[in-house]
Design brief:
Strand content: 5-15%
Largest sheet: 5 strands, mixed
Structural class: alpha/beta
Number of strands: 5
Distance between the termini: 59 Å
Number of domains: 1
Length: 220
């Protein structure tokens, strides 16, 4: 009897240890500081060409088929050169990604983030802008926008006002100001995001991706 109890406890411990050590396995208990560290550590591996993530296998696909446990939300641009799972060296099921050109957010995007925060218990949101963003460049140049492209420019245009007060490259300054604008928007999006951010249960931060060297820089 004692042997059975001992064996059961041992197997339970081993299973728990295997779960926790599984590379990139999203867990709802990951705090926002740990989530940020995982993202930035993954980006460092990406920059140094020593990516090691094994979360793209058939085994991983089957493992997450019945449920997801992402450890972070990444709001980024639709630009094909900015795939978050790759530049952060993460696998299937690790990131809850919102992608719209210019890394803007509309009601649908905010609702998606609210879902991740409220139902998937994600405590960290990164708004990721990037160098030479085409949507920002088009907005800065101005002119006529056919179709629905004008909705992107309308969302980005307020960032130009902040950027105009700064010295340096106007497009680059607008990229950074646009990230800050989206961060402020999310932090004040009530009731879910605003309340959790105010109570210290959710962190929403901005960052910038460098197309040339692959680095992600945290923004103030």
């Amino acid at each position: 009897m004692k042997y059975r109890i001992y064996l059961t406890v041992l197997l339970s411990f081993a299973a728990s240890a295997a779960f926790c050590s599984s590379p990139g396995h999203g867990q709802t208990s990951v705090g926002w500081d740990t989530a940020r560290l995982k993202l930035m550590s993954g980006n460092k591996r990406f920059v140094e060409s020593r990516m090691r993530h094994s979360g793209h296998t058939a085994r991983r696909r089957i493992e997450i088929a019945k449920g997801q446990h992402p450890f972070a939300v990444v709001v980024c641009c639709s630009d094909s050169r900015v795939p978050p799972e790759i530049l952060f060296d993460q696998g299937l099921g690790d990131l809850f990604v919102i992608r719209l050109a210019g890394n803007i957010v509309d009601d649908a995007a905010i609702g998606s983030i609210e879902y991740a925060v409220e139902h998937l218990n994600v405590s960290y949101v990164m708004v990721l802008g990037h160098e030479r963003c085409g949507a920002v460049e088009a907005t800065v140049k101005g002119g006529h926008y056919p179709g629905c492209v004008g909705t992107l420019a309308k969302a980005i245009r307020p960032a130009m006002i902040d950027a105009a007060r700064q010295s340096g490259d106007f497009v680059e300054n607008t990229v950074r100001a646009n990230v800050a604008l989206v961060v402020r928007t999310l932090r004040s999006a009530g009731p879910i995001l605003e309340e959790r951010f105010r109570n210290g249960l959710l962190s929403i931060e901005g960052a910038r991706y460098d197309l040339d060297d692959g680095t992600v820089e945290m923004l103030p």
